[in-house]
Amino acid sequence: MPRHLKVLVVIFLLAAGLRFIGLNWDQNAHLHPDERFLTMVANSMRWPKTILEYLDTSSSPLNPHNIGYDFYVYGTFPVIFVKFIAEFLGKGDYNQLTLVGRTLSALFDLGTLLLIYLIAQKIFKKPIISLIAALCYAASVLPIQLSHFFAVDPYLTFFLTLSFYLLLRNNPFLGIAFGLAIASKISAVLFAPVIALGFLFSRPKLLSLLLFIITLYFTVRLAQPYLFSGAFSLNPQVLANWQQLKTFDIPGYFPPAYTWVGTYPYIFPLENLLFWGLGLPLGTLSIVAIFYLCFTKPPPLIWLAIFWTGTLFLYQGAQFAKPLRYFYPIYPFLAIFAGAFINNLFKHFGLKKQLIILIPTIALIWPMSFISIYLNSNTRVTATKWVYDNIPKGSRISCEHWDDCVPIGGSGPYQFIEFPMYNPDTSEKWSMMQGKLSQTDYLILSSNRIYGTTMNVPQTYPATNQFYKSLFNGSLGFTPVAQFTSRPNIPIPGLRLCLTPLGISYGQIAKSIQDCPQPGISFVDDYADETLTVYDHPKVIIFKKNTNSL
Fold first, then answer.
1. Which of 130, 200, 272, 515 is the S-S candidate for 120 at Cβ 3.0 to 4.6 Å?
2. Rounded-to-integer distance, Cα 117 and Cα 336, Å
């Protein structure tokens, strides 16, 4: 085996370790709401008796709309695929299907890594650049995190990256790859201009264009049949779901959307990419690499990758909702840009090739610290155990709506008192809240979701803002008795240091009681975009009512 392929195997195994470690990170508690939903949909699906029934949107038992899920905006291909594999392996029950889904997410992301190697090799024809690009992607934290979730995003990114590779090679299977991307998530259509531009420069024969259109149609028709209500007409129920999804950009309709109120287009996603998605070393290299490639004379094919990266970033960065995962499909290409730049950087300074590995190795600090959250018990699971060990049975415990309650799995021997914090700040709400507070023995914040979003809009929630200020400064009559964090961490004996990035403000009210319990160097991501932490390592804070408040 050639040496560069041996190195690729090592990189692949490193990436696999980072993606497969701790896949059951929530101990079957199903704490990710999206994958919880997909698991419920998959469990409700039934296999059609015939291919005609499978294709029949109005009657197929695989169509979410026919089995009680009137609102469904994802592609059906990943869910049906996971269901098939899980049942084939005899793991189709509620718990194991989720784990199969997470395993397949990791496998598809590893497939993306191999495509990065092939694309870089096709563009630059230098194994060293391909290897560095693969290593950069292996060290990218957002793909590592999303590999731990049963979601459609790894499928979308894999099939879009595959489409790019097949486009470079003028491969007749391009229509199939792009069709599977659309069948995974409709946002794949943003890649259509890239295909059009690729066709424009390659000047394919009419037969090739027809083959692409035909294979694209039949792939989508077979992999996402419920997108259609007839042979060619789109399903009005799906269109209505997509239209309804856009209303989630209205915070009053979908309260968690308050997290993006006041965020700047492009600046907000760029900050999240630099601090969290890639980390400062790799993120900075990737951004600089784009400018470097634009002002040098790179291979012509790289312009297609730059065009795709710019297209997605410019579109998604201008949207109201800007979660990290919406930018996932450009991460493979950022890794390729970084690989080319790092190689040229060392070539320019005349350093030995063996030292090229140094920069990506430094970039590994962030992902190696991030996977510590999967080596530790989930914070909500740990908090649940603490509740059972320390809170007397029969106690009344608060639970904020729109969030998972602690203890997880139900109130158990306790009584939940729901706090409707997203309700409008009316006198009726706070009259009701006064009654609920008087009954509450322990007030539990199971994540930063509610106080992070409501305090982001003080003009909308002035009384709620004051409530959380009083809670955290102690004047509400509750004292924090336990905090549970699982931050990215580098364990170093004898050292206890927490590093918080500057300019991070989401849920910053909690800084007043921030602790630093883990030995070593911890990267405090408590105040990052909630989609980074709220699923797999939220900060849980438990307050106890003061005796003199009784």
1. 130
2. 8
